[in-house]
């Protein structure tokens, strides 16, 4: 099974099509042995190939016609977001899961219709799942908090960081329309906010409330996502945001904080566009048959060798493109 098949370059896809044709012709001829890449090899007639692909995405190629002819397309239906959300909310311990799921789906539908169209906005299944995971996390932290307030906080905390300034009032307005009777309390970040401001002073930076909010949003996002992307123009504070947060978490741990989110944090920096894809991820030497690790493999292996609770961040500090980010 080949996942995200159309991420392969067109030239390589054409070669795969020719190899696939060789195998399928041998199966149709009921052969026991057949020639493949200049060698005679035994044939397993139960051999089959399945591919998954998302047509129309950035960095994707269209399948060549000779390759399309070898496969039978199967279109997937749009999932029932409401039912999936209800089941996950039930598994996270919510009693009013049915009503909450219905309102949540309506929120995402209205947001996708009324908010501006941005490349980094996502109202699909991945976004829904991350909100539900965050809601479960908040539910366990605050078991006595009303369920609708818990879900609204999760919706706000997971979506607000990615919205542009002019879309935030629209999003808050949609929440107010769906939950007119609910007043959402502001989160008191306490020692976290105090230490963020202290680290800003140590770096001789001004304490701007909106920037402090961005740093706390980065932490909130990290708690429910394995990978986080900071997107913005040059000189808008992306690197400073992550640097201040890492210093803050380290200092809070040294100060004796018992919050599991506050840990000693080590950051591995690299610029993915300053080196080739082979140097970044690794390469296979066809002459010697040896695999040579790239920078990412070396850094990740070093990070996982530390079995403590310390945080290890691999920071790809550079421009984004579909070639390196989806490898």
UniProtKB/TrEMBL annotation:
For this protein, the record's InterPro entries field holds: AAA_6, DHC, Dynein_AAA1S, P-loop_NTPase
> Which stretches make up the Dynein heavy chain hydrolytic ATP-binding dynein motor region domain?
1-239
Q: Which GO terms describe its biological process?
A: microtubule-based movement
* SUPFAM superfamilies named in the record: P-loop containing nucleoside triphosphate hydrolases (SSF52540)
- So which domain of life are we looking at? Eukaryota
Pfam families found in the cross-reference section: AAA_6
Gene Ontology CC annotation, any one: dynein complex
State the Gene Ontology terms under molecular function: ATP binding; dynein intermediate chain binding; dynein light intermediate chain binding
**Which protein, by its recorded name, is this?**
Dynein heavy chain hydrolytic ATP-binding dynein motor region domain-containing protein
Species source reads Zooxanthella nutricula
Organism classification = Eukaryota, Sar, Alveolata, Dinophyceae, Peridiniales
